[in-house]
Amino acid sequence: xxxxxxxxxxxxxxxxxxxxxxxxxxxxxxxxxxxxxxxxxxxxxxxxxxxxxxxxxxxxxxxxxxxxxxxxxxxxxxxxxxxxxxxxxxxxxxxxxxxxxxxxxxxxxxxxxxxxxxxxxxxxxxxxxxxxxxxxxxxxxxxxxxxxxxxxxxxxxxxxxxxxxxxxxxxxxxxxxxxxxxxxxxxxxxxxxxxxxxxxxxxxxxxxxxxxxxxxxxxxxxxxxxxxxxxxxxxxxxxxxxxxxxxxxxxxxxxxxxxxxxxxxxxxxxxxxxxxxxxxxxxxxxxxxxxxxxxxxxxx
Length: 300
Description:
This is NADPH:quinone reductase-like Zn-dependent oxidoreductase. This protein is an alpha/beta fold. Helices cover 28% and strands 27% of the residues.
């Protein structure tokens, strides 16, 4: 089978499309014929060799955590799923023609493989940081870097929970944030004052790692009310860096509920073939994403 791999840490150019042995489902796992794989910032952070305790790496390594596809192998002890089922979930080395998933859920009706691949890590992260920052119904959450995949999920989940969201993004994404129920504003010079004019901020999330931790603490008045998923230096300012996943199966179940109720939709901004994995990482690192980026691997 074909798989994207890297044998050394570095830039996008270390990614190679290679011929590899097919993986097989172990106990508690399923294997899928991959139709699409999500492109997440954690993918290129791992490729760069950033120290992420939740994702230890042995070289050479595959790439990717999220995927959608068709079950073709069921591991020992697995019940409730069988060959031919359409699922999406989280596993390892998902930029490949076949991948093993450790957590999965059946795709809800009407969801395409391309769309489904963009949900697992994004929704888990969104649910986790909303919980960790402690924001509640009736309060206001500030989201820095709100137009990407996690931001898109946070905005919609928060709206469903009665939380007001102020979201920062580029000028081109202001209408997009508004469509997801957020009060939008642009980043750049003067953004702190623009946020202040919009009202009190009870909690804040840094999703882009754009060097705004001090300002988020200033706006909330307490570093304990700020969470970052993108700035490894956040703890130096008393802000928690959240990088360890919670229960992925629970997150997937909640994702299906939200999608089925019409409360969550994350558009796919761009898709790439396996041979263009490096380009996908370049685009992901550049930011300014509206929704999700995915790899398209199979058909059907």
